[in-house]
């Protein structure tokens, strides 16, 4: 159900097949592929037809990967190359998945060989909650209920080297996210804080700042495409916008209200807006089953900590019926800026399009 | 539970730290149950200003008649070192709940209650100190004086304090025990290379690493050297060899070691180092450098003041120790394990060998390769790997390519190795992991040490091997140990989310 706003959110596809709740979805950054993961320990891959002027993409299920994880697959992330993805499981391991080369492999064909586990990253003591590749694809970050954030360097032949074990959080770490261009890592935790890390080239990874303000668990974080902002979603029902006011300093500049219950997921895409100084679109979702889309744009005030302008441009309620919505993700591929995917407790994954009302 | 200030560790990266709250159920010996009043359902727990817990009945009636205020003081939970070792609930270095069992107060209490020499129940108090501790003390007093002070001088002063003030009858440093550990280590490496075990061999001297491997990476255990650490070898030497010389049974000796690391307390309390027959441990109590310094402060001893007959360096007089003292082993300040194997290869190889060192990212991860100069053939590849992060990479590498890759890895849990063993920083109120401080200790460690006798050389090696043939089982009993995986007993539901 949409409310009267500038844009509306239209359903494009409803993808069924998981046997238990869908925890996370991830768009392949280079190919027309969407992946979802679930408490049923499997990953499902969907291919879609390219968008044409007259026709929305059509989604079709191409494969299910049983993963071999012994517990829930909580999150997954594609590498920037689109050739590899990583899974984070409650069995405390990170899986690295690659497609077997086949003899009739045709370039970017989305089908091709079987997906197999090329590497298993052990080290976390308890449930892994999130995993993310850096923009260059050379680093991988993971986090866990064991309160740690790990940084791995990606080596050739699916080898990984641990570069850092960051023990700064005092509670369960829910989410990790990388800056879109620089090697800055962010993590969000049950300790209500967000921490940002960088690498000291002569030394180790370290936390250079802690962002506080949320009054409950921070479930999700995402950098803006410009890299100058960060969005977070929390159990305190708010979405916060954090701005980079100097190189290593980030401040909360806006608190967006619009959810009645916990915000489980946020995503910041480039959007299809036409406002001046546009910063893209922020989507949020959570326990109230609602998807909100805000348009963000630079303020005319040029001071460093001036908040960006924000405007709620679209909303849909009961996106997955009465169920919680666990994740929302903008499609990162050029030409698909208005497409969103969500995953919910109803075991489905859904694809949406944000269009002018 | 209140922890001592030194143990409240925050903002630390790359050390193994407690990752979750203690889940060990605490057992209490309950006094006789007070009969419940019919219908009088519950009591509540109140906390007084001192932090003690009291159980009081809700209607205010006393639960226990023995105390006038109508409240029963509840016992405080006690968790022993052995509970920690047997539990996989948390993986930690410096398991801070257990320090009271092995503390300097414990040592002072013992010394106070130890009957006079004439009494048959008198125990011989013996103290052994690690060279890293001496380095730390040297760095500590050198920082307040202009001239650097040698380990020998510090050792003389520590000896004077421990014998004159505390009443220890024998004081040793652990370098001779390390010498034996290095010989045994080299021996074990050759046994493994000859097919008697798995390679790469991983160092066994760091108890933080051993504890972590037993709890989290049982698959690593076959790779870990079974040679005892210097602390446990000095334990064996004191209780078995010296004890015999003195005509004392193991339980007639009280052996204290001073170590740079809290985890040495865990190591000393392992079941394997407990003598069932005499119900005594090879090392009865482990204290840290900081605790030794605290004792000196409490007794008003100033370590910066020279003592009589203090010598700059060896040799000491004929009245010196039964062991060679302050032996230097070139290599690392964490025991020179890798270097001793490199030296063994270079001294025994008929070919000329060239050593190349490659730093992998930082000085905490370095690869050492020995190649034949003529053919370029690799005869030995080792690494030193310090800190939790590098330790992860060792585990991955060994798991992936067992048998290939490295022949030996010197693994230590702390970044920087033993001169940064967790307790060293507290000496100067420096933050644990302070690199400047670690550097100073490292310098003090190597300052003005005589070189000979160096690492186990060929002749010693051969002697040892011959001796080994004659008394292999005895040697193995004395100088080797074993490890066992700790099965996880953590149930998800029992854990605080």
UniProtKB/TrEMBL annotation, chain A:
CDD domains xref list: WD40 (cd00200)
Alphabetized UniProt keyword annotations: Repeat, WD repeat
Pfam family, one: WD40
Domain of life of the source: Eukaryota
GO biological process: iron-sulfur cluster assembly
Ranges that cross the membrane: none
GO annotation, cellular component aspect: cytosolic [4Fe-4S] assembly targeting complex
Start and stop residues of the WD repeats: 15-46, 66-98, 121-154, 166-197, 211-243, 256-304, 339-357
Function of the molecule: Essential component of the cytosolic iron-sulfur (Fe/S) protein assembly machinery. Required for the maturation of extramitochondrial Fe/S proteins.
PANTHER family found in the cross-reference section: CYTOSOLIC IRON-SULFUR PROTEIN ASSEMBLY PROTEIN CIAO1-RELATED (PTHR19920:SF0), WD40 PROTEIN CIAO1 (PTHR19920)
Similarity comment: family membership: Belongs to the WD repeat CIA1 family.
Protein's recorded name: Probable cytosolic iron-sulfur protein assembly protein 1
Organism encoding this protein: Piloderma croceum (strain F 1598)
Automatic annotation (TrEMBL), chain B:
Family: Belongs to the NARF family.
InterPro entries xrefs: Cytosolic_Fe-S_CAF, Fe_hydrogenase, Fe_hydrogenase_lsu_C
Entry keyword Ribonucleoprotein: no
Function: Component of the cytosolic Fe/S protein assembly machinery. Required for maturation of extramitochondrial Fe/S proteins. May play a role in the transfer of pre-assembled Fe/S clusters to target apoproteins.
KW Disulfide bond (keyword) present: no
UniProt-recorded name of the protein: Cytosolic Fe-S cluster assembly factor NAR1
Keywords: 4Fe-4S, Iron, Iron-sulfur, Metal-binding
MF (Gene Ontology): 4 iron, 4 sulfur cluster binding; metal ion binding
Iron hydrogenase large subunit C-terminal domain residues: 126-422
């Amino acid at each position: 159900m949409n409310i009267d706003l500038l844009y509306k959110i239209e359903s494009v596809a409803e993808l069924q097949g998981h046997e238990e709740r869908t925890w996370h979805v991830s768009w392949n950054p280079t190919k027309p592929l969407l992946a979802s993961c679930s408490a049923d320990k499997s990953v499902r891959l969907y291919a879609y037809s390219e968008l044409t002027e007259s026709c929305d993409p059509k989604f079709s299920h191409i494969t299910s990967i049983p993963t071999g994880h012994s517990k829930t697959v909580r999150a997954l992330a594609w590498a920037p190359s689109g050739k590899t993805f990583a899974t984070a499981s409650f069995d405390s391991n990170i899986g690295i998945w690659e497609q077997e080369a086949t003899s009739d492999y045709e370039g970017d064909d989305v089908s091709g060989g079987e997906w197999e586990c090329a590497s298993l990253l052990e080290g976390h003591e308890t449930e892994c909650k999130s995993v993310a590749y850096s923009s260059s694809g050379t680093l991988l970050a993971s986090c866990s209920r064991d309160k740690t954030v790990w940084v791995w360097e990606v080596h050739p032949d699916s080898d990984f080297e641990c570069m850092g074990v960051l023990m700064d959080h005092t509670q369960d770490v829910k989410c990790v996210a990388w800056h879109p261009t620089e090697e800055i890592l962010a993590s969000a935790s049950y300790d209500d804080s967000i921490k940002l890390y960088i690498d000291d080239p002569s030394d180790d990874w370290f936390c250079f700042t802690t962002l506080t303000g949320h009054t409950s668990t921070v479930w999700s974080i995402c950098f803006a495409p410009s890299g100058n902002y960060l969005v977070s979603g929390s159990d305190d029902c708010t979405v916060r916008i954090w701005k980079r006011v100097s190189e290593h300093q980030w401040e909360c500049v806006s608190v967006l209200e619009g959810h009645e219950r916990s915000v489980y997921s946020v995503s910041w895409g480039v959007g299809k807006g036409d406002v001046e100084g546009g910063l893209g679109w922020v989507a949020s979702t959570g326990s109230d089953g609602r998807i909100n889309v805000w348009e963000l744009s630079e303020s005319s005030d040029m001071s460093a900590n001036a908040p960006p302008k924000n405007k709620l441009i679209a909303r849909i309620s009961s996106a997955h019926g009465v169920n919680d919505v666990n994740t929302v993700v903008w499609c990162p591929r050029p030409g698909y800026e208005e497409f969103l995917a969500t995953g919910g407790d109803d075991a489905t994954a859904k694809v949406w399009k944000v269009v002018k009302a | 539970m209140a922890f001592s200030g030194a143990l409240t560790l925050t903002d630390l990266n790359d050390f193994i730290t407690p990752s979750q709250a203690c889940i060990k159920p605490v057992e209490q010996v309950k006094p006789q149950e007070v009969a419940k009043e019919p219908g009088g359902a519950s009591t509540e727990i109140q906390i007084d200003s001192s932090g003690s817990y009291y159980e009081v009945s809700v209607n205010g009636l006393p639960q226990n008649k023995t105390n006038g205020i109508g409240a029963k003081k509840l016992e405080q939970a006690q968790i022993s070192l052995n509970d920690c070792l047997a539990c996989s609930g948390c993986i930690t270095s410096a398991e801070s709940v257990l320090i009271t069992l092995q503390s300097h107060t414990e040592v002072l209490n013992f010394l106070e209650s130890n009957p006079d020499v004439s009494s048959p129940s008198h125990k011989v108090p013996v103290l052994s100190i690690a060279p890293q501790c001496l380095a730390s003390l040297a760095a500590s007093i050198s920082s307040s004086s202009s001239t650097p002070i040698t380990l020998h001088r510090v050792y003389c002063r520590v000896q004077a304090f421990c014998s004159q003030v505390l009443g220890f009858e024998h004081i040793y440093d652990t370098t001779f025990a390390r010498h034996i550990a290095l010989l045994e280590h080299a021996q074990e490496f050759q046994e493994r290379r000859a097919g008697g075990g798995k390679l790469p061999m991983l160092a066994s001297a760091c108890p933080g690493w051993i504890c972590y491997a037993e709890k989290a990476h049982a698959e690593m255990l076959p790779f870990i050297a079974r040679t005892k650490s210097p602390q446990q070898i000095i334990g064996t030497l004191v209780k078995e060899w010296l004890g015999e010389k003195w005509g004392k049974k193991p339980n007639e000796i009280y052996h204290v070691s001073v170590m740079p690391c809290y985890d040495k307390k865990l190591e000393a309390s392992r079941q394997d180092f407990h003598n069932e027959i005499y119900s005594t441990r090879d090392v009865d109590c482990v204290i840290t450098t900081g605790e030794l310094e605290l004792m000196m402060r409490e007794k008003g001893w100033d370590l910066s003041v020279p003592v009589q007959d203090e010598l700059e360096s060896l040799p000491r007089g004929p009245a010196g120790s039964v062991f060679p003292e302050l032996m230097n082993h070139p290599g690392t300040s964490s025991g020179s394990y890798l270097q001793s194997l490199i030296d063994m290869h270079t001294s025994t190889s008929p070919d000329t060998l060239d050593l190349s060192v490659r730093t992998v990212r930082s000085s905490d991860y370095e690869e050492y390769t020995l190649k034949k100069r003529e053919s370029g053939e690799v005869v030995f590849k080792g690494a030193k790997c310090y800190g939790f992060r590098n330790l992860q990479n060792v585990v991955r590498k060994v798991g992936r390519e067992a048998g290939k890759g490295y022949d030996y890895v010197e693994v230590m849990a702390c970044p920087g190795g033993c001169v940064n063993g967790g307790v060293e920083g507290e000496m100067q109120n420096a933050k644990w992991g302070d690199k400047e401080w670690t550097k100073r200790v490292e310098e003090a460690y190597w300052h003005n040490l005589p070189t000979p006798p160096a690492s186990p050389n060929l002749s010693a090696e051969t002697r040892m091997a011959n001796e080994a043939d004659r008394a292999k089982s005895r040697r193995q009993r004395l100088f080797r140990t074993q490890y066992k995986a700790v099965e996880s007993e953590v149930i998800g539901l029992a854990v605080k989310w």
